[in-house]
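Folding follows sequence. Below is one example:
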Amino acid sequence: MSKIGRMDNTHYAQQRNDMAKLQFIKGAPLRDPSYFVGPVAWWADSLTCGGVERQIVAAGREFKKKGFPITLLCRTASAEGGNDFFLQEAQACCKSVVPFSPDMLDGEIFLKARGIMEAFIEGASLVFRDSVAAYAAWLLQVRPRLLQIWNADHLVPLLAAIIAGVPRIIIAGQSLSPAQRAPYGFESVDEDMAFVILSNALRLTDVVMTNNSRAGCDAYEAWLGFRPRAVALTPNIFDMDEWKQPSEARIQGLRNALGIPAQARVLGGLFRFVSIKDPWLWVNTAIRACTIHKDLYAVVGGHGPELDPIRESLSHTPVASRILFPGSIKDVPAFLSLCSVFLHTSYVEGLPNALLEAHASEVPVVTTRCGGAADVVEHGKSGFVVDSHDDVLLARYVKHLLDHDDAARQAGKIGKERVARLFSPRRGVNALLRVYAGLLPGMPAGDLDHAKDTETLGHKEGSVTLEANSPDAESPLVSIVVPIAGSADGLEATVTSILDQCYGKYELIIVHDGQDSCLQKRLTCAAGRYVLIEGGNGLAESLNIAFAGAGGDFFTWVLPGNILLPDFCGTLAAALRAFPRLRWLRRLLPASIARVS
């Protein structure tokens, strides 16, 4: 088979289907199934501080409790690069942890495996070819009767297992398919090559695929052309008993270390600063939220190549001092206990452990619809799952949670209940054991009823949810900005006309330059039904500041001394909803006004 390149879109699907029918890996396997009488083994690329590695340890702990300790094979578990982060925990729950070493290899077998690889894919890199051959020779030393590969991206150990002849293989997907992930930070796997290898591998006897989210299952089934439910759902394991509530001293110590005032609220985030996580969207949403809520701090933990450019860009904004980047946060439970809302903005995910942890800490979540996010967050119940990568829309949901304390607290409790129910160790290990039972005679199939175990979390009738008066309500919110430069003469008439609108779903934002000493007296008529922001030199900058913190579906503005007719907001909202192509007007449309003489 020649090296696979990008194909013409017109015939793409058919050509991929034709490739899938080609004879797969001539010369393999090197051994018959009867040769593999060794342990049940798992493959991990490393034991670094990552979501997959965390799940390996969690599942390994549960398998040990069941009396089936696992042999864990690692490409590396060295201290260099933090690849040994979970090593001690893995050693405690596994039968053994075996890092790869060339000293384990039989040179003759290695050469045979490399010859098979050279015939299979022409022009493959030396590293790719030799890695497959080396791991195939290693597996022939271990002789696993079953190998679970923890990540569908790991094509090298998958090819090695097929070439060696491992009789039973589980490919445990941890994200969406390559087709859904490109181009946002997709690394290491060519989509076309992955399609050929996986589609052929899954046609072999006793090779199955799982995924940790329903979105991931659906994505791989659609991409590979398999029937629905061909990919088994094996949800992440989250042990609520291991997630201990931190002490007040720990929480207060972290607040002090971050420099956050005692009564300030926190918008939290945890991610790597890489494109696939969309860190710019997180920061832009945080700018809007902090602009409108003067007591709000936004804190995101993590490192990555986009962090420094974001810091530089943010330094020129008025809220820079309240958006913090402390790097890696070691005490995650204490950090989440500080948060009023947790914000997640990725393009693509598997099933984000950070969302499980936020809900376990009773924190409501606002997240983009990425991978398994909707498996964790129930929209309108434990938080909000937003389809659009729109900082205005995300900030509106954050604002709703910050403005409705009781509903937000109830959402956090619902989230914790949901995680405890749907991601319990019992449920997660039983789902995995059902897959094992179909491959290995003698393995238990789990101790829960399958139908009940796969149902979603329900809510008691009459429980408080976020649906009432939430941003999902039918009527769009109109943000009305009144910019003030110098004197605010005529402001009372303008504000009164806004308060007299027939359309009730609007917010009033007043942005001023601090020059009018009588401003508060002029606003007595509004009785607190407004948001007051100081800042801005000139009309353009004032509007930019106000709109950054606005939470509306539609934006408009009016100068002091002008009035809005009573049906203005209703007419505006109805027109823009009836003609969605005019939504670009939301940033440009000035108020229709009548001059007060």
